[in-house]
Amino acid sequence: MNGSFPNSGQYKRWFQTCQQAPFGAFSGRAAFFLDGLLRFLIPWGRQPKPAFWPVKPLCRMATQLCPCGYFGSDSRRCKCTPGQIERYLSKISGPLVDRIDIHIDVPAISFSKLRSKSSQLDSAAMREDVVRARDVQRKRFGNDKPMTNARMSHKQVRQFCELDQACEMLLKQAMTEFGLSARAHDKICKVARTIADLSNSENIRPEHIGEAISYRRLDRKL
After folding, report:
1. Which residues pair with 133 in a beta bridge?
2. Fewer CB within 10 A of the terminal residue: the chain, N end or C end?
3. Cβ contacts of residue 161 below 8 Å, gap of 6+?
4. Which regions of the chain are under pLDDT 50?
5. Nearest Cα to Cα of residue 190 among 156, 221, 143
6. Which residues neighbour 149 within 8 Å (Cβ) at sequence distance 6 or greater?
7. pLDDT tens, position by position, 103-121
8. DSSP letter at 31?
9. How many whole angstroms separate alpha carbon 101 and alpha carbon 148?
10. Which of 188, 160, 193, 156 has the alpha carbon at shortest distance from 175?
11. Which of 51, 36, 50 has its CA nearest to residue 6?
12. 123-160 CB burial, b ≥16 within 10 A, e <16
């Protein structure tokens, strides 16, 4: 696909290519960005025959939270009714949301921030932090299969994401209040472990767990 929005014929050819490819041919670490997530969700009955193959993608998705696009905006008034918003968000299934590591709101940037000359963390500095955190994870897992926190199994989460009493209470409260699943529990622990790595912290602290919980925004809306 050349970057334009794929039509039904392109979807069909893509699925056919995946079905004919040898096992493992698509097992590379690809990166995807789906802008306008709900446009990509095809009703199951209209999909070609599904194909399954091992992949390790980095998938980023973006969507507005209502038909008009202004739900939650501080600058524009949302014109949608609660029923319209509920029907719109219901297109994103709970199992899909459950499998996304981080979901956050991205508010519009104000004019003053756009024109601000105050210093910001640049890409080079962020890259240094990421490289350092990845090195920490490489040393943590050694020659084991995961290599990164995101690939930890449940057993490894219990081993490498030890929580003190304060962290346990925060996580328990979130699990109970938002009705989070076991998968969401592990994802919060993995994200908290990564935040701790980025903060040069050997142990996961309450602020790390709190930040990781704050990245489960869609769990609260669905």
Report:
1. none
2. N
3. 152, 189, 190, 192, 193, 204
4. 1-3, 19-28, 42-46
5. 156
6. 137, 160, 190, 191, 193, 194, 197
7. 888 888 888 888 887 767 7
8. E
9. 13
10. 188
11. 36
12. eeeeeeeeeebeebbeebbeeeeebebeebeeebbeeb
Helix (H, G, I), strand (E, B) or coil at 215: coil
Sign of CA dihedral 200, 206, 211, 215: positive
- The two counts, helices (H) then strands (E), for the chain are 11, 2
DSSP assignment of 12-25: HHHHHHHHHSPTTT
Angstrom distance (rounded) from CA 49 to CA 156:
35
| Residue showing tokens 């994200």 | 191
Owner of token pair 């981080």: 102
DSSP string, 92-113: S-HHHHHT-S-B---PPPPHHH
